[in-house]
What does this fold into?
Amino acid sequence: MRNRLKDIFFQLLRIGLWGKGQLVLTKPMTADDWDTIRAYAANHTVDGIIYDSFPFLEENQLPPLVLRLKWAARIDQIERRNEKMNQVIAEQFVLFSKIGLKPILLKGQGIAASYRIPSHRSCGDIDWYFDDNGYAEARKYLKENAVKFRDTAGFSLDYEWGNIDTEHHKKIFDIRSPFKLSYLRMLKDHYKQQEQMLSIGNESIRLLAPELQLLQVNGHILKHMISFGIGLRQICDSARLYHTTHTTINKEDLQNMYTKSGIIDWMHLLHKILVEYLGLPIDEIPFPYPNNLDAEWMMNEIWYSGNFGFHDERFEDGKIINAISSLPDGPKRLWKNFNRYFRFAPQEVFFFTLVHSYSRFIGKDSD
It folds into this structure.
């Protein structure tokens, strides 16, 4: 994408994300320009956010009518999937609670609730964590009731429920250093009384405390950036969470969490991107980042990698080695990202491969 269109893309993203602002154009956009914008929006799964900028545009700035109609049809699909996902979440929560489990909803719809229009956030899968060794009990229930599931790397399992992908996780946080495990367990216990409740389908669904939700979401972003990359939707998630919680979170505690988890230097990079590219007000960042920090290179990685690295045009002709990854040039991409991020989160980069390999080949559950 040319620099001019990239600038327009981010203008539209900021307008849709915050519900304010004006689009500034040096010359009118063509139908081809809008096709390019739409393709990148799809690659980064921010179709709905860009669409939400349209009410703030001048009539002569809007996409051609045919494209607007196609875009509206896509938004209808997103809304329907969100509605279906909420139905499944409520159904699963009731079921799990009925059999004595204590589920907590991670990411997903808990983040969507922080958006201006939650139903326009493209949803992925449902992620559950269970208190008190509930992961094993939930797995046992699935097996006894002939629900086909797959044990996966990362100490998780997944299955399909009502055409919605669902994952169960043994661990809340995507912090892989074994030296941080006891600290992370302590955090979970310490913030238990600050857990949030989200109403979905007339059910009160448990969410993590805001500080832990931010640690969990941002740690998840880092995990994917260390591997094959991540798209703008997840970066928007972080921005919206900060926006809706900045007046209530304990900012000093959150800074200590990032520091003790070993990711504080990387968090500075992320915070600068949230402010300079996504338009998050700087006073909504919980603590200042260094003035001379260069985050442009990381923004470029986000821009090119797209949704979990699936659309990175730099590697589209690369060789696929399935033993390592189904993505082109998997080993090369991993090595480059290890080198990029080691200085900002050394323990996470070092232990990512070790823990991922262990969980893939040794740590999976088996019967």
User: Anything to note?
Assistant: The domain at 3-361 is CATH 3.30.460.40 (Beta Polymerase; domain 2). The mean pLDDT is 91.
